């Protein structure tokens, strides 16, 4: 089984899994790069998984369904291009012989879901859409900081070798913000250097690993004293014992960070 990120728009990745015959894609915001990859590799698209309703994640769904007849799965609680099979937390979908468990991760949007697979050769796979980014997290468009904190806690609890397949290449800008939050975090400084080399070589920084994210991503580190203190420096209302207040301050700080 092969895993590859298809670049779309300016910074999206449409994740593709294929076994050299059949393919699955996640969050095809645009049909063109998917059709090009299918034709180029002689693959037939079987399955489309969607994490949330934003246009840069669903924009290509209808065209791909019409062109390939692929089955489409998405969140139960969001407006979706019909027809679609809707999935709730704890349910699973089987595609390409792999089982993908559905995890509710509200915060970026109200009904956002993630897909987690332990069946693939090598390490587990996580398709987390716009909830968790390498070094960051999604903006809180529809959810509360407490919801996002709970969603990130659920993802951070996955095994350390989980391959974290985020939907955007935001890593460098996230890590520069993370460095402002934790200037003394050596793992973070080292990882920033690693990701800068990857980008200079024109390569994706993704997938990341969950143990790396736990070490370098301030949004997964809201219980760390250094992170809570930095957040308090930005917003005096932060309660270091309430991780959601730390997350809220970090998110606001990141929104303003240049
Ligand atoms: Zn989004
Ligand atoms: Zn997006």
Could you walk me through the main structural features you see in this protein, from its secondary elements to its overall organization?
The protein has 258 residues and is of the alpha/beta class. The protein contains nine helices and 14 strands. It has a six-stranded mixed sheet, covered by helices on one side. It has a six-stranded mixed sheet with strand order 7-8-9-10-13-14. Strand 11 and strand 12 form a beta hairpin. The longest helix has 15 residues, at 186-200. It is globular. The mean pLDDT is 98. The chain binds zinc ion (2 copies). One zinc ion binds at residues 52, 54, 108, 130. One zinc ion binds next to helix 2.
Task: Give the secondary structure arrangement, pairings included.
Layout: E1 2-8, E2 12-18, E3 22-26, H1 31-41, E4 44-49, H2 55-58, H3 61-68, E5 71-75, E6 85-87, E7 92-95, E8 98-104, E9 113-117, E10 125-129, E11 132-133, E12 136-137, H4 145-156, E13 163-166, H5 171-181, H6 186-200, E14 208-209, H7 210-216, H8 225-234, H9 243-256
Parallel strand pairs: 3-4, 4-5, 5-6, 10-13
Antiparallel strand pairs: 1-2, 2-3, 7-8, 8-9, 9-10, 11-12, 13-14
Helix pairs in contact: 4-9, 5-6, 8-9
